[in-house]
Write the structure tokens for this entry.
Amino acid sequence: MNNRVKTSKRSAFILALVLQPLLWTSCVDNDPILDNYYTFTGEMVSNFLTNRSEYSSFVEILERAHLIDELATYGEYTCLAPTNQAISGYLAEKGLNAIAELTDAECDTIARTHLLKGAFYTTDLEDGALPTTNYMDRYLIYSSDSIRVDGDLTVAYYINKNAEMIIRDDSVENGVVHTLSRVIMPSNQFLPQMMAEDTAISIFVDALRITGLDRQMEAFIDETYSVGPDSLDLKLIFNSAGERPADYPAVRKFCFTAFVEPNAVYRKKGINSVDDLIQKLTSKELAIHDPYNRYLYNDDYRNPNNVVYRFVAYHLHDRLGNYDDWTVTSKIRNAQAVYDHLDPQDYYETMCPFTMMKFQTTRDGELFINRRRVNEGANADRNASDPYATAVRGVRVYQPSQMAGVDQSALNGVYHYIDDLLIYDAKTADALNTRMRMDATTLSPDFMNNVGRGRTKPNVASQVVTRYKPGYVKNFIFTDQTQMGLRIDPLWSPSYQCDGLDFLGQYDFAVKIPPVPEGTYEIRIGLNTDPRRGIVQIYLDNKACGIPIDMRLSKYSNPKIGALADTDDEEENRRNDKDLRNRGFMKGPDSWMPGEGKTETHRTYYNSVRIILSTEYLKEGEVHYIRFKSVIDNPLALLPFDYLELCPKSVYDNPEGEDTH
């Protein structure tokens, strides 16, 4: 946010203190909008709009929606204001002549579509979804494109691909106003219906229908879920090592994401129709990775073991993932990622049974699926002259700006173009033959569908917690006595990816282990020790993983962990690491730094540890759970679940030893 905004807010705050008695006497009783707000005499969003005739139509709509008064109150708002000409164009498209012909409900929808809580300047935005949902609880897409103006090439910025931001970043007392050339009209279609209208992806859409997977993506709202109004809008407190504002999602959504090859990609492979695709899959010309000969190559395309079904389903996720959701934001990457060792990456279960997908964001900010750098995984070349070189390219995901003119955001999901064939083949198996470090906030689609992961904080210095109810978090089972919260931290946080799952109370919960490729794995968790933590007994499928773990112990000073600081002698460091492993612990990874401005990594940070739980053979088709149970009589003793690590034997038992990344 620029200095002018900060200065004006400071002045407004001082003015509020002086005028406070007058403001109290002028409040309207029982007005839900004005409760807990002060109204200032400076130019607010409402004043900005009403003082300028070019927004008079939008002001009329805001008044019909009873929202103009809220924009006169103290807070932070982003207003995407369509001009009078934009609204006239919208009315003409609907065959109307005046705003008076719109219903109150239509005015409410238009107004809420163009308003967001929080002040977001274009300097805060990346190509992708805006940082938070609008008043309709929908994400809007920010993108750019090159256009010619009077013969000169320039860059234009858009909301949802076709509403140009013709004036940007008008700073006001309580937020920012961006002026739009068109009214934003988000689609109310489900994802399969939206994709069906995109003729550039017709081959994949035909395959989606043949497998019946389109029907599986028509869910949206869980009608069995409910919370009271006192549990919303950060009205709760979560006492995880300090009081933090918290709330529950207002609704529980089911959402989906598809990664789709345009027809042009298929044609390069000699595939011109869905029949061509089926023929190449069933004949094994396009070979699905099937080392145990478990899959079907017949015409039963709706069978989850059929190769056609598995090919299509591997493109799909049961979670909402905009372009910048799959790893971490550029601010976090730039502050904490050690690119010399690893690209920021995350792993997600797909809708293809018992399969995972790997996402990496490169130094250039490009998003790839199932990519492997030359220096990572079981087949790593640790002496590569260029550690950034690619061993397995994978496929690149198009940025929203590269899908110009394509409306990709449906009511219950989003789809992205990809630049090559996405298939779980031998190369994908190679990319996944690596240590998988899974941020705890990726372990359930509910954390992405319902507010939590990547949630925008009220201000950059705060921590905010999203609570979840038992029975409404896929892949997790927990008791009523378990308090679960997904924590979002500022950049100074030592937590991996600036977030984590916090558990309080006499917690007893279990999390499903994601379906990694079949093989022997060392199962680990990552967390930060601290005197405010508790003692936890961990089980794998109800079999105890050793004795209870005291998370209050110091990484370096307590002999039960017994970590030693690294020296210049690499042989000595390896011996120390081996001794530490024999006690069931590992230092944190050196590929991530514990907070902005720090020069050390999680490996050297004083309280960052990995705990080795067990070594197990994980077979495809089997489901396993890790259970965590508090064994200390202190409901405020915190369990901070930072990440899960599944390391294949090909990595931890490598003749060169496992790397420290």
